[in-house]
Structures are given as C-alpha cells and as structure tokens.
Amino acid sequence: xxxxxxxxxxxxxxxxxxxxxxxxxxxxxxxxxxxxxxxxxxxxxxxxxxxxxxxxxxxxxxxxxxxxxxxxxxxxxxxxxxxxxxxxxxxxxxxxxxxxxxxxxxxxxxxxxxxxxxxxxxxxxxxxxxxxxxxxxxxxxxxxxxxxxxxxxxxxxxxxxxxxxxxxxxxxxxxxxxxxxxxxxxxxxxxxxxxxxxxxxxxxxxxxxxxxxxxxxxxxxxxxxxxxxxxxxxxxxxxxxxxxxxxxxxxxxxxxxxxxxxxxxxxxxxxxxxxxxxxxxxxxxxxxxxxxxxxxxxxxxxxxxxxxxxxxxxxxxxxxxxxxxx
Amino acid sequence: xxxxxxxxxxxxxxxxxxxxxxxxxxxxxxxxxxxxxxxxxxxxxxxxxxxxxxxxxxxxxxxxxxxxxxxxxxxxxxxxxxxxxxxxxxxxxxxxxxxxxxxxxxxxxxxxxxxxxxxxxxxxxxxxxxxxxxxxxxxxxxxxxxxxxxxxxxxxxxxxxxxxxxxxxxxxxxxxxxxxxxxxxxxxxxxxxxxxxxxxxxxxxxxxxxxxxxxxxxxxxxxxxxxxxxxxxxxxxxxxxxxxxxxxxxxxxxxxxxxxxxxxxxxxxxxxxxxxxxxxxxxxxxxxxxxxxxxxxxxxxxxxxxxxxxxxxxxxxxxxxxxxxx
Amino acid sequence: xxxxxxxxxxxxxxxxxxxxxxxxxxxxxxxxxxxxxxxxxxxxxxxxxxxxxxxxxxxxxxxxxxxxxxxxxxxxxxxxxxxxxxxxxxxxxxxxxxxxxxxxxxxxxxxxxxxxxxxxxxxxxxxxxxxxxxxxxxxxxxxxxxxxxxxxxxxxxxxxxxxxxxxxxxxxxxxxxxxxxxxxxxxxxxxxxxxxxxxxxxxxxxxxxxxxxxxxxxxxxxxxxxxxxxxxxxxxxxxxxxxxxxxxxxxxxxxxxxxxxxxxxxxxxxxxxxxxxxxxxxxxxxxxxxxxxxxxxxxxxxxxxxxxxxxxxxxxxxxxxxxxxx
Amino acid sequence: xxxxxxxxxxxxxxxxxxxxxxxxxxxxxxxxxxxxxxxxxxxxxxxxxxxxxxxxxxxxxxxxxxxxxxxxxxxxxxxxxxxxxxxxxxxxxxxxxxxxxxxxxxxxxxxxxxxxxxxxxxxxxxxxxxxxxxxxxxxxxxxxxxxxxxxxxxxxxxxxxxxxxxxxxxxxxxxxxxxxxxxxxxxxxxxxxxxxxxxxxxxxxxxxxxxxxxxxxxxxxxxxxxxxxxxxxxxxxxxxxxxxxxxxxxxxxxxxxxxxxxxxxxxxxxxxxxxxxxxxxxxxxxxxxxxxxxxxxxxxxxxxxxxxxxxxxxxxxxxxxxxxxx
Lengths: 326, 326, 326, 326
Description:
Four copies of one chain form a homotetramer. In chain A, 28% of the residues lie in helices and 22% in strands. Chain A is of the alpha/beta class. Chain A has two domains: 2-134 and 297-310, Rossmann fold (3-Layer(aba) Sandwich), CATH 3.40.50; 137-294, Dihydrodipicolinate Reductase, domain 2. In chain A, a hairpin with a 2-residue loop joins strand 13 (275-282) and strand 14 (285-292). In chain A, helix 1 packs across helix 9, helix 4 packs parallel to helix 9 and helix 5 packs parallel to helix 7 (196-207). Chains in contact: A-B, A-C, A-D, B-C, B-D, C-D. The A-D interface holds A 159, 161, 163, 180-181, 184-189, 191-193, 216, 218, 220, 222-227, 229, 231, 233, 263-267, 270, 280, 282-283, 285, 287, 289, 291, 326 and D 159, 161, 163, 180-181, 184-189, 191-193, 216, 218, 220, 222-227, 229, 231, 233, 263-267, 270, 280, 282-283, 285, 287, 289, 291, 326.
C-alpha cells in the first residue's frame, strides 16, 4: 500500500541527477514519489521535460516542499544545497540526501550533520544517519579503486587518469558539450586540480591518516554520455595474488562493488549501480582499473542505495537494473 | 518461493537476443532461469560471455534442454528454430516463444501452431496460446505505426524509411559492423526487399484484407547500437485530429505503445519495452513516426511481454525498465 | 606570386561554413585569403576560434570589408546576407558567393542578380556570373539525385528521406545539438516542410516545367557531425540499365558527382567535395541514394567549386581533398 | 611531367595504413603512384576496396614489385616487412619506408640499415638515408611529448595514459573492434607492457642516455576511429615558463609539431599531420598533453614527411591537409 511506502521528494528535478533519481524512485517497490520540485519548470508535466517518462508518470513539477516527506533528495548545483537548506525550513523528521558537494567535507547546515555516503566505507554510519552527503562521481570511482590499499596503509604517490561522459558536465550548454565539438573528441580539464580531490584525500585519510594528498589526477572528457573509467598506477611491493585477496576481502560485503578477474570495460556497468574493479601488476607497479555509471553509482543510484540503508531496506531494492551493455 | 515461479529456459543464450532475454528474466519477479543453453559456449560461465552480468548470476551454459521447463525461449538464427524443434523432443507442456522468423507466417512444427506475438493485435489469442512467433524488430515498429490505419481500411501505398542499430545485425563480425566502418556512417541495405515485409503485409491484411502489399520500405544502417526509428508517409484524406483519435483508441489498452503529442526521438525508448508513435499531417500526406528498442520491444522485451500474457501475469511484470535516456 | 592570386574575403568567418571556406582557401593554390570578418570575434586570432588552424594562419578577425577584394564569401545566417549587402557598399568589381538561402529563388540585391550555383546544372552560367547563390545542403543532395529524371521528364511523386549531421544545424547551442541528447539519437524535424523544398522544386522545374512540387521530404537528425544521406523513391517504368545510362550521361562532365555501381555509404564522401549516387530498382519503384558532406559539396566546397568556375580555374583546384573515410 | 615525378609503390595496399598512404600519394604534387600491391586483393580495383577513392584512381591491385620504383612503402603487419624483404629482391636504388615495427630498434635487412623516422629528432639523418623505420603511433605521440625534457636530461619516472582510436587496431575483425562492443566503451589493454615502449625508451636514451626505462604507460581503447591523445605526468622542478621555452625551442624548426598556449583537443589534429602539445604545471608535477592522428602523424603522414625529406622536397609537400575538425 502506498500508505506504508516511503514518501520521497526531489529538489531540482529537471536536471540530469534529478531525472535519474526520479526514474529510480518511480519503479522502487518501497517508495512513492511525493513531489518533484523544479524552479525552472514549475507547473509543467514531468514527462514533458524527461520525455522518456511518457506514460510512466502524470506528475507536474512543483515549487514547494511538502512537510510530510520522509526523504528529500537535493539534486542541485554545487553551492545551491547549502542555500536551499538555509532558505527552507525542512521538517526535522525529513531525512536528506544531498547530491551536491556542499556537505562532503564535514560541513553542517543548522543542526544537521552529514555522513559521507559511500556504503563500502561507512555502511553502519549511513544506516543510522539522518543526512547524507552523496559522494562525487569521480570521487566514487577513484576511492573504490584505492580504499583497500589505504586500509592496508599502502598508498604513496598515486597517478590517476579518468575519463567521464558528457552527463558529468550537466545539462547546461557549453562549447564542450556541443555535439559537433565532443563527438570523437578527447581533451583534458582541471588537470591535477579537480574539485573531487578534496573528498578523495579526506576519504583516504580516514583509513590511512598519514597519506600525503599525493594523488596526481588527470581528468579527461570522453566522447560518450554515461560512465567513468579510471586507471590508477601505484608503486607497491605486494604481489598480485595478495592484492587481489585484499580487494576481495574488503569488498566481500559490498552490494555493488565487484573485483573482476579479467579486464573490465565501461559498458559492463552502464545503466547499473555497479562498480567494477580490476587489478594488474607489472614489476613494482600496480594498476587499478575501476568503472562506474556516473549518474548511478556516481550519483543517483548511490543516493538510492544510501536511502535503502537509512530506511532499513534491502540495499539493492530498486537497483536491480538492466544494463544497456550494447 | 522459487518453487512457484515459472521455470524458463533459453536456447541460444550467447547471442544478443539470448543475452537480453536472460537479463530480463534474471530480474523478473515471477520467473526463475532454469538453464541457458549455447552450443558454442557449453560449460562456460554465462557472465564470462555476458560480462555485464558479473555478480548477477552463477549459471553456466548448458547443452541440454531440461524437461521440467515451463517456457522455452528460442533465441536462434533464422532457420535454426525449425531445425531445433525437429531435432529435439520438447515436452508438450513446455510453452515456446520463438524469436526467429521461422513461424511468423503460419508455419507449424509437428503439432505446434504459433500465434504471431504482437500483443497490440492478438492479445487474447496470445493469452491462450502454447507457442508464440515473436515479431521481427522492423516489423514491430512498422506494424505498430500502421495498424490503426489498417483497421480503418485507410492504407494504400506506404513509403517507409527505417533506421536500425548495429545490434539488429547480430553478433557475427561483418564489414558493416566493424567499428571503423560504421562509426558516423549511414547506408542502405535490402532496399524494398527486407525479409520483414512478408510478416508486415500479412499482419496488415489481417485487418485490411484488400491491402495490396504496397509498402515501399528502405532500411538504413544507423551508427548507433540500439533502436529503430521509422517514418511512414501515407496519402490520407482524414484530418489529424481524427487520426490521432483513431490511434489513441486503438492503443488505449496497450501496455507499452503510446501516442505522443509532440515529436519523438529514439532515446525516449532505449532500454525500455515501449513503442512511441507520433503523427504529423501536411496537405494530404500523413507521416507516422515510430520508435522502439530493437532488442526489447523488437525482440526480447516483447517475448517477455508475451510470456506474461501466456502465464496470466501482469503484462508489465519484469518490464518496468529504467531507460538509458542520455 | 601572391600578387597574381585571387584575393578572397570571408564575411561571417567564425561559424561552421565560414571556417570550412577558410580551411579550403588557405590551401588553395590560386587564392590568398585577404581578410576574415566576424562581428562576434573582431580582433581575435582566427586560430583561437578555429583551433585546428593553429600553425596554419596568423590572421585576425576583422570587422571591415576591404575594397580590393576579388571574391567575397558570405557565410551568414539566412536573412543576414540580404541585410549585409544592403548595409555595405561592395565594390562592383567584387564577385559574391552567398552561402545563405537569401538569393536562391531569383531574389536580387541592388543591381546584383544571382546564378544558382549548382555546377552540374548551370556550369556555363556560373562561369559568366558575378554573383552566386550557393545551394542548400539538403537541396544539393536531393537535386543531384533527381536531375537526370527531371531532364527526362520522368518525375511524378517523390518520397524522400534524408539524414543530416549536427553541423547542418549550425554552431548555436540548442537542445538537439547537446551531446547528451544527440548521441545515439535519431529524430525527425520540419516534416514535409523543410525550407529547401522551395529551391528543390524550383530547380526541378527548370528541367521539367510541369513538375507538381510533389516531393514528400522527411528530414531526420543524425547522430554524426558531417554528412547527408538521402534515399528517394520514385515510380518509374524505365528499367535500371536505361536509368543508369541516363545518370551516367547526365554526370559525364561533372567534376565531383559520380554514379556508383555498388551501394554507397556516407563515409565515402566525408571531407570531400564529392556527391555519390547509387540507383536500385524493384518492381516499378526506383530508389536513388545520394550522399554528400554537408559542409563541403553542401556548402563551402561547392562555393569554392563555383569560384573556380567564375575565375576560369581548374574546377577541382583546391578541392582534391583527402577523405577521412574511417 | 609524370616522367620527373617520384615513382612510389605500396606493399600491403589494402589495409588502413596502405590506404592512407595511397590517399596521400594520389594528391602529392611530386609523386606518381606506380603500383599498389596486395596479396589478398590482386586484380581488384583499388577503389572497390577503398571505396572513398571512387573517381580518384583507376589502379588495380598488383602482386608484383616493379623494379623502376623510387620509393617503396611497406604497409605490412609486424614481422611481415622483414619477411617481405627476405623474400623479394628489391633494387638497391629503391628507397624503403617501412611502417611496421620490424626495423625500429636498429635491425638490419641484408645490407639495408634503417634510420628511425622521427623528423623532429633525426631530420638530417633522414635526409641522407636510404631506408626509414617509420615510428609507431603511440610512440610518436609519447616521444614528441617527452623529447625536450630528455634533451635537457630532466626525465625520471613518467606516468603516461594514452587513448587510441579503433583504426590503431587494424582492419581485422575482433571483439573489441565490433561496433556493438566499442561504441561508448572504454577499456585498457597491454597495461604497462605496450610494444611501443621499446622504441620509446630507445629514443629517449638517444638524448638522455641514463634514462631508466621508467615509463609507466597505460593504453586505453577509445570509442572513436582516428586519433591518439596522451597525458604524461612527470616530477620536475623547473617552472612552466622555462619548460614552455624549452619546448618552443626544441620544436622551432618542426614542420608539424606545435606547442599550444591553451588546452588542446583531439579533433584539432584529426585528418592532419600535426602533433599538438600543451604543458600544464601544478606544484612539482608537469603534465604534457599531446595529440596526433594515428594514421597520419602516427603512420602514413609521417611516412610521406620522411619521403619528402629523403627526396629533398618541401617537408610539407602533399601534407597540407584539411582537418575534419567537426
């Protein structure tokens, strides 16, 4: 019965992560979508903006927050979540999952404190939390590739290259999201200075406090819409069998993160909430490859995973997604 | 309980439609995958071939058909289904859904007769049938665009152009499925002679017996992997309001076929079982656009829809799929 | 010596056709680029906007037209060429090649009359002309596919579907040129009402005066950047051998339009000035496939071809381009 | 007059690099294509295999080598060039440019010694050479990104990630060149073990003899057909201004290698013979980005550049190519 279902609201429902959160919630067996807010699209049919939802929902975009909301997903731009919570009185019984970067480094909003929502690291804290700061997309892919090494205290310099799809850049038109520019193109951006480095270093130091913030991360723009593929190179003495065991153990209880025993490719995870990891070793260098769907495990999927944990549901509820694969 | 679930088997599980059928069945709430057969991959892990299924199944490919099977999906090449049924004694209590073209024109196998599995046209026959001939991908998209006109006896000459993704050509390597050839490329093939024309004409004449087989169909190869987009031009006097009403009425009970009131695009349906239709009229020419995912509504999704009907399940069971959209 | 070279100026040099015209002129053996004007980019380095030209030119965008210009390429939006010629006094000795649609239907500007610049049809008039209205991209592909039939008086109803790359939509950001939308997507637009229909009908009637403007043209947006592929279906009694001879004869003197004896694909012409044509016949229906690069034979390449004719140069001068092919 | 032109022959003319070499030679002002050999396509029209050349050449594939050949391009698979030269008596007056990796490390064939054909490093030796070992595609992009540092003795550990188009994998069908697999996909291969590392280390040590072979190179498969984009991260104390000057000086005489003062992207170089380089510095880490077209500067274009030098022609002759850019 809908009466027993979790009432979910979405703030910023017209963008990519808002739409993707909505898609997941609409078919989640334990949730009813209570409202979808969007300042830019008030009053319009949700399916006029997210046209793939034609026939799936009759909802209109609202401009208000309903008090009777069990969980609120903030799908706003960076800086806007903080602003939204300052300007709107949200019932203290409403849990918040924020997809922006506003609360990932321990920032508070009024009395609300936020748990960094990476279930592979903080599952029990997430279960007890009222507020979640959902990790960044590159941060998720890079952290999941490094956490077992951090726990073992093995990280020194890390050289990481990552490539991301166009949806990582959001819906706003820019030269680099123009089809005529991006098709068949590759370029780098925010070389060594990507904003996710802060939460990555923070997360690694949670496990390996002495880590020296020495991740040299080169992000690339890829000519595809969805997905992140990352390769990290680390100098390590341990042999590959040991390292594979380390990873297998670390992720033995993970719902969506898997260590592969053969090379991975990006499309294995597209339209799923999985993170796949593959290790290779040559001489004293370990290479860790990891892959996620930036909108799912890198954003909305992980947000639902966090919601599942917060509400005591099966961690995979609503997240058994058919991959696109081809 | 699995004991009450439908036991499904897949013949030809290593190909595209076999894999896609498997993906759908693995998360279908009323089905348990009993076995996946493949002559070429016997004994291998299913997830070593369909690598996106890593973590989702421990099944190995088999080479035998289990007698205790409720429904058998034949995901074989054209001509091979007939051969398979000739060479294998399938229990008479096992229902068969054949994805090849072998039984779409009324062909029989031993005592088995096949219902053409287009739910929008033959829903009640499908519900009572033991054996289904699942429609072709282009056939599905074109027929759904024309059926309301056929029912009203309005079809004369039809000029149709359709474009299909590379998965329509199957897994075997050919020049035209080589990435270096197909990327950014368009070409035509089987001009006016596509094999689906037989079932399309057959289906139309079911509703409009006097139709003169006058569909002039130009198929194009598209530079994408999934999906079919079709535009049909027909000379018709009726005005657009009437025609929209005709279509809305015809599809009022359809689970997945929807008439849009604005232009459609291919990605609205990708990774879903939907067919979207949009009508435009200019002078005395009607243009009907229709779009499907060739592997879902055009193959495996429609097969599951047929299974749902045959077994008295909710027609949408296991088919509430998250679109990829971006 | 530069002193003997044709001095060319470009108006609107920051857009796609302006940039492509510039690329061709920079390596044209008989031309020197005199100036490149752009209202939006005055004073900037040309290679800062057209970044592929780094190392190829030191030119800056200007805002003025130099009087000592032998030929002026107007690479402006539709309506803007007319405005530009009204507002700027261009020396009467300067020849004009206009890439907009402003003068394609016989419109005049002051005393200037324009020849429709399709060399396959109007070569001798182009040679003698002072002003050229360069044909539209879809118009070029469709007309070249139909002209031999028009000359033979064989055209009745024509059903045409065409697909175009994103560069056909220009540089301005729109939803349908956003990478996240357009990748792997297909949709229709301007169904049966595309603006090029006027010049197409006009051109056909030049050869077949009784033609009834009965081209039913459905344009599609393709998920690639460059190129147009068109298939036209026509009811015709003549057999294929006759028709091929008709086309071969018609294009025997054409510098860039070729009749293929096997199926064509789009990438055969990308980054070249060619138009390829292929004929198929089934029953009483002829299908004519044609393919061009929309920015070259469909715009800037044809403009240079016209310039070559106007100035008595080898028609292929500066247009022996290496195709991209892969 | 053709009589004064260089007579060029191609061995292995049906593959990607053979085709690309042929395209360049056909429009080279100082060359006549004497013959195109292919064992697999003997007697067929060249334009039936390289269909973009329809109308550009009437040549047929041959199976013999003509003695009156001034320069022979070996466009064969790795290992096959050595075999070819063993099995065929090539006139001592015929110069050889080998595109395979067979002679890049100083290997000889009979009396023939080969100069490593990287004009930025060995221009004067190339001018005097009879035989050229044309560099590998990844090798070219990586070396050009590192040579100025090697000359200054500044290289220690180098962490490099590179991405390559599908044409880098050749024409043979494989799972990873199937369109349905590769579209929108990314994966790694030959991690830290790519065969080009040998020639890269060899070339670096030519300038910095003490270099410790410490390039950690992770190659990725990209979802595009043409191009290589590389980012190398190096620990270096020198500041960015100095480093830019170092690169500018090193490449001041280079015909096609340019140091950009803003971020580069892959499409700036596609369908050209350019290599673009861009430097960034953050803390003590230098990042060098470099981009080439793998079939041009990474293969056939560089081969023509070497030919130009060997025959005393303008280094850019036949290589002023229009980029595709969009």
